[in-house]
Structures are given as structure tokens and as C-alpha cells.
């Protein structure tokens, strides 16, 4: 028996990177997966790849910073597959990076609108459906919230909000049988990781010294933790943020 057979899983930012790896992993475990993102071409391509591998997936275009898009996205998932069991609340942006003096309030708002307001909005509209299925949410924070890194004031602060959102939503909803947890990835080799460090080679160079495991992570490293948190095996894990960073924040 596959771990998510017949379950409906929404992955925001599921078109590329960490979200894509998680969408593929959920589909391999039998889930019907809804992939949401702003760019249609990448999202449709990932949904087609999952279908070609024998899985079930659908794409919906949505910007998680836009309330009407979030409402329509949740509606799409529930109507398309009949319920909602798991939300991997993963969509995020690194936004503008750099010394604080070079950043403006418009940069602050753009990053917080996606990473904080978007994460909150998706929970707000998904949680009533998750009560019906006794489902769960996995949010996505970052090691940048735990380890000070120059040039990341806005991004790191936005990701620092995620464990707090996770803890508070978990306490609000656990009595109704819904768990809320989060992952906190270290440096992961994705498009964002490449933009963050300038290139994947730069990230690997950074990881060789900054990460005790001696390497940067793969999207699949995070997907494994997400599937665990979303699974019945994590039934007693409530309101936690699990760090998957090769030891970077443990030094
Ligand atoms: N890579 C890392 O090193 C790392 C480390 C720690 C935490 N994280 C977190 O992990 C998550 C995924 O990161 P990643 O590395 O996979 O990033 P990525 O490669 O840039 O992918 C981001 C995904 O989110 C979607 N997205 C971005 N803004 C969105 C919006 N407003 N509405 C809907 N979808 C949106 C993107 O699609 P569209 O652009 O088409 O919308 C894409 O599917 C993020 O929350 C990130 O902060 C990443």
C-alpha cells in the first residue's frame, strides 16, 4: 500500500525545485497532486511528467500573494479531486537580496507578500477543508531564519515568520484533528539556490565549508522530510519545524 494512496495533495510552488520534487514524491506514493504556481509552462510540464510516470496531477495557475487566486486555487483542488488532505505550503521567493541600505520598502512588501501573507492566506482557506479530512499542512521556512547571513534581512525575516505561523496554526487546529508543521531547508540546489548564491557552483563552494555534511542538499532531501511530516507516521508531530540542512544550523 502506498503511503498517500487516494489522498489529495496541494503543492504550492510545485512546478520546479523543492515543490516539484515533493509533488513527484507524493504522486509516486499514490496521491492525486495539484500543482500551483504563477508560470503555466513549468507547472503544466511537471504535471505532464507526473502523468507520464503513471501518477495523477493537475496544474492551477495561482499567485499565493493574491487572495482571490488562493481562494480559486483551493476551490480548484477540492472540485477537481473531491477533497483536500495535505497542503505543502511551499511557494516562496528570495526577493531582493543585499545590504539593508540598498533595499526599499517595496522590496520588503514584495517578499513578505509572498512568503508570509501567502503562507498565511493558503492556510486560512485550506484549513476548513483539512478539518473535513483530518488532514495536515507542511509549511516551508529556511535555515536563513536561524543562521545570520549578510544580505538577507528581508528574506530571513520572512522565513522567520514561518515557524511562528506554524506553531500558532497548529495550536488552533489540533483539537480538530489537523496537524500543521514545517520544514526548514538548508542550501538546496534549485533555481532559487542558484540565484541566491549566484550559481550552483558558488553554493557548493559555500556548502563545502559552511555545512558540516560537506555538501549542498538536493530537492529530494527536503521532499523526504515533507512526506514524513504529512504522513500518519508523524501523527504525534504537531507545530514543529524540522530542519534539514546537513547540520548547518547545528554548528
Ligand atoms: N533552495 C534553497 O536553498 C532553499 C532553502 C531554504 C528554503 N527554501 C524555500 O523552499 C521553497 C521552495 O524553494 P525552491 O528553492 O524550490 O525555489 P524555486 O526553485 O525558485 O521555486 C519556487 C516555486 O515557487 C513558485 N512561486 C514563487 N512565488 C510564487 C507565488 N507568488 N505564487 C505561487 N507560486 C509561487 C515558483 O513558481 P512561479 O515562479 O511560476 O510562481 C516555483 O514553483 C521556498 O519557500 C524557499 O524559500 C529554499
Structure notes:
Helix 3 packs parallel to helix 4, helix 4 (105-133) packs parallel to helix 5 and helix 6 (191-197) crosses helix 7. The longest helix has 29 residues, at 105-133. The chain has helices spanning 17-28, 40-52, 67-81, 105-133, 153-173, 191-197, 200-210, 219-230, and strands at 8-12, 32-37, 56-61, 86-89, 136-140, 179-185, 241-244. The chain has a 7-stranded parallel β-sheet, with helices on both faces. The model has no long low-confidence stretch (mean pLDDT 98). The chain starts with 7 loop residues before the first strand and ends in a 7-residue tail after the last strand. The chain is built from 8 helices and 7 strands; from the N terminus they run E-H-E-H-E-H-E-H-E-H-E-H-H-H-E. The protein is globular and about 45 Å long. It has a single domain, classed as Rossmann fold (3-Layer(aba) Sandwich). The protein is an alpha/beta fold and 251 residues long. The chain binds NADP nicotinamide-adenine-dinucleotide phosphate (NAP). NADP nicotinamide-adenine-dinucleotide phosphate binds at residues 12-13, 15-19, 36-39, 42, 62-65, 90-93, 114, 118, 140, 142, 185, 187-188, 190-193.
- Total strands: the figure is 7
The structural class is alpha/beta
Helical stretch tally: 8
Helical content (DSSP H or I, runs of 4+): 40-55%
Give the mean pLDDT.
98
Classified in CATH, the superfamily is NAD(P)-binding Rossmann-like Domain
Strand content: 5-15%
- In the residues, how many domains can be counted? 1
Largest sheet: 7 strands, parallel
**The CATH topology, please?**
Rossmann fold
Secondary-structure element pattern, one letter each: EHEHEHEHEHEHHHE
CATH architecture: 3-Layer(aba) Sandwich
CATH class: Alpha Beta
Instruction: Work out the radius of gyration.
Output: 17 Å
Low-confidence stretches: none
User: What distance lies between the first and last C-alpha atoms, to the nearest angstrom?
Assistant: 39 Å
| Approximate shape | globular
What strand order characterises the main sheet? 3-2-1-4-5-6-7
Distinct compounds present: NADP nicotinamide-adenine-dinucleotide phosphate
Amino acid at each position: 500500500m502506498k503511503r498517500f494512496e487516494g489522498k489529495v495533495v496541494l503543492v504550492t510552488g510545485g512546478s520546479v525545485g523543492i515543490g516539484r520534487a515533493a509533488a513527484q514524491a507524493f504522486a509516486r506514493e499514490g496521491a492525486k497532486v495539484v500543482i500551483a504556481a504563477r508560470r503555466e509552462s513549468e507547472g503544466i510540464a511537471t504535471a505532464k511528467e507526473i502523468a507520464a510516470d503513471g501518477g495523477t496531477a493537475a496544474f492551477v495557475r495561482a499567485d499565493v500573494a493574491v487572495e482571490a487566486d488562493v481562494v480559486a486555487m483551493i476551490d480548484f483542488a477540492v472540485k477537481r479531486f473531491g477533497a483536500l488532505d495535505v497542503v505543502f505550503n511551499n511557494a516562496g521567493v528570495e526577493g531582493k537580496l543585499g545590504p539593508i541600505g540598498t533595499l526599499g520598502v517595496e522590496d520588503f512588501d514584495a517578499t513578505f507578500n509572498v512568503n508570509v501573507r501567502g503562507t498565511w492566506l493558503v492556510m486560512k482557506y485550506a484549513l476548513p477543508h483539512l478539518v473535513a479530512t483530518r488532514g495536515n499542512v507542511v509549511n516551508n521556512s529556511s535555515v536563513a531564519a536561524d543562521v545570520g547571513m549578510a544580505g538577507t534581512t528581508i528574506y530571513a525575516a520572512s522565513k522567520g515568520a514561518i515557524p511562528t505561523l506554524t506553531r500558532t496554526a497548529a495550536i488552533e487546529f489540533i483539537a480538530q484533528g489537523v496537524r500543521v508543521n514545517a520544514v526548514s531547508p538548508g542550501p538546496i540546489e534549485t533555481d532559487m539556490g542558484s540565484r541566491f548564491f549566484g550559481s550552483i557552483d558558488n553554493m557548493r563552494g559555500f556548502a563545502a565549508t559552511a555545512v558540516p555534511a560537506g555538501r549542498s542538499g538536493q530537492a529530494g532531501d527536503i521532499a523526504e522530510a515533507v512526506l514524513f511530516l504529512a504522513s500518519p507516521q508523524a501523527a504525534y508531530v504537531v507545530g514543529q519545524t524540522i530542519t534539514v540542512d546537513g547540520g548547518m544550523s547545528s554548528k
